[in-house]
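S.,

As promised, the 4'-deoxy-4'-aminopyridoxal-5'-phosphate run. Input:
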Amino acid sequence: MGKWEENVRRCVPYVAGEQPDRKNMIKLNTNECPYPPAPGVERARREMDTDSFRLYPNPDVKPLVEALAEYYHVKPSQVFVGVGSDDVISMAFMTFFNGTKPILFPDVTYSFYDVWADVYRIPYRTVPLDENWRIRPEDYRQENGGIIFPNPNAPTGVYEPLDKVEEIIRSNPDVVVMVDEAYIDFGGESALPLLEKYENLLVVQTFSKSRAMAGMRIGYCIGNEKLIGYLNDVRFSVNSYTMNRPAQILGVEAVKDDAYFKATTAKIIATRERVKGELKKLGFTFPDSKANFIFASHAAKPAKEIFQALRNADIFVRYWDKPRINNSLRITVGTDEEMDKLIEFLKNYLAE
Ligand code: PMP
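Predicted complex:
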């Protein structure tokens, strides 16, 4: 080993879901939206002035921040935009989880949280979900340096009602509580109204799921001005121009078309509810999901085997060989047609 390696920041990186590129594949493994972005996005893309690419983009991401502020009825100074919510959460970890006490998050949750904690050397403690994959707010009454949890949770899809979310925020006034709402638009109630009552709350959302823009990498968070100010100080200490020009322009178009957004999410919700019934008929069990995915296990067949069989048929779902979740598949809700093909495959496979 060279001496220089002693000074390397070592980490175990997050492993993102695979991005296969197979003809006619059914991709239900990374919770993308199966429908295209709002029509205005395509229009703006065609009209984009590529000569402007010579110039740096707006460092404050002003048009997009203003569009989001208007949409959510908050001040622009309460909105922070980043390169996907991964970037937003990573920056927020660096900014707000800077104490010596362990931060808390559920034991079964988005598997990037412990990776960020490790890379930034933030101590953490995981809090077990109960046997029904639910968060117990009272478990978050222990000493801590900050809290993060998704609502709905991933990969379970379980949504916690706002009174439970509020209980966690209320009982932790001395730390920042981040609610990761990547999947909130599929039937949950956002914690955003709680911002009026709690200055320690940060609500994180993304364009990757409900706004069909995973490829553009746009995420944002909303909090009180002071929190957002601190977050911007850290961001501008790392990189002044995080959001590229196309993302800034196209993101605004996605926010403008609320009718399309609502129609798309309603379609996904309807498909999800129908698929829940179909999966039940096939002997799958799952916690009730309010996200754009279903976290299903089968009584007779191990999840790992079903995952492989699906994969061989070019149907991609997500599987983790990890304690507590190694007999479940996370299945993204695709189009009705895609889900019919999935169900048809499972019907035949399970009858074998
Ligand atoms: N939070 C949760 C709970 C997620 O599942 C994801 C998607 N992997 C993200 C945040 C990050 O999504 P993005 O960076 O695409 O906004």
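The chain has ten helices and 13 strands. The radius of gyration is 21 Å.

- D.
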